[in-house]
Amino acid sequence: MSEILLNISQLIIQNKLQLEHGKIEEAQLESELIIMHILDLDKSDLLLNPNKNITKQQIKINNSIIKKRLKRIPLAYILNYKYFYKSKFFTNESVLIPRQETEILVEICSNLIKNENSNFKILEIGIGSGAITGSLANLFPSKKIEYIATDINVNSLQIAKNNILAINKSTNLNLVHNDLLKGIKGNYKFIISNPPYLSIEEMKNIKAELKFEPREALHGGIEGHEVCENILIQLAESTVEFENLILEINPTSTQYLIKIMKRLFQSYFKYVIKDYNNQNRFILITQKEVSQYLNKFNYCPN
Ligand SMILES: C[S@@+](CC[C@H](N)C(=O)[O-])C[C@H]1O[C@@H](n2cnc3c(N)ncnc32)[C@H](O)[C@@H]1O
User: Fold this and answer.
1) What residues make up the domain containing 269?
2) Does residue 195 share a domain with residue 56?
3) Mean pLDDT across the chain, nearest whole number?
4) Which of 87, 125, 181, 228 to mutate to test the pocket of ligand 1 (most atoms within 8 A of CB)?
């Protein structure tokens, strides 16, 4: 029999103190996530059972996770998953850890999809772990949607495929290994992307955890906006047609990208939408006026 050493509430405090000492942000949250992982509990079970005993073996696993975390390895790479928009996504160092603000992109897209009939295509550029497309596949299992997605990183395509099919195994999914829109043809109801958008200067100052993430998922060029700009230019110059384009952007690139979208997509409606921190984070370019579907967002028409 394993010897009983600590209970849940004691271990939460112990972990939190160690993580705070290691200058880990959100030490309380991460402490809880680690214990939830080890004991296979959800948050309410964790909070309802503060006196539940932790075995010696569980403490050993806990301590080895804390040790890795203190080396600043992101928790999502240690546990090999991250929850994003109600689903669990496998994550390792081949893919960007899905970010909370990107859930807004899913929400914007889903608000527009709700008002569409079936039988259309969605293209995602730079699928990573599959968080965005997987969340949409989860939200709209009964709509006939064909999902096409690209990534320059071949490892991410396999991870995205596994993640999306684990959420909804009948997803109509077509993954392509390529550079942005090269070789892509056709007509899409939605094109969505969260491209890399950090500048060279920002890359020099990234926090320790980001150094574990794939560089091609973060670095968007010298100024940071180059990949976004290339997507806009390639779309304007190619035969690819779209009704709605939603791009996640670096707030610092807003004015630059507004100028480009105004020049390239004169006849379209254009919106800039803010994130939870009131920062410009998304651009939406659309053939129809859609402000009635954007009420819950903090947005500005352009
Ligand atoms: C910021 S990550 C986003 C990943 C995922 N969509 C998400 O939101 O969590 C950017 C993704 O774009 C991919 N990428 C970078 N440059 C690319 C390119 N030129 N063509 C296609 N994909 C690219 C990266 O490999 C990475 O998976």
Assistant:
1) 87-301
2) no
3) 96
4) 125
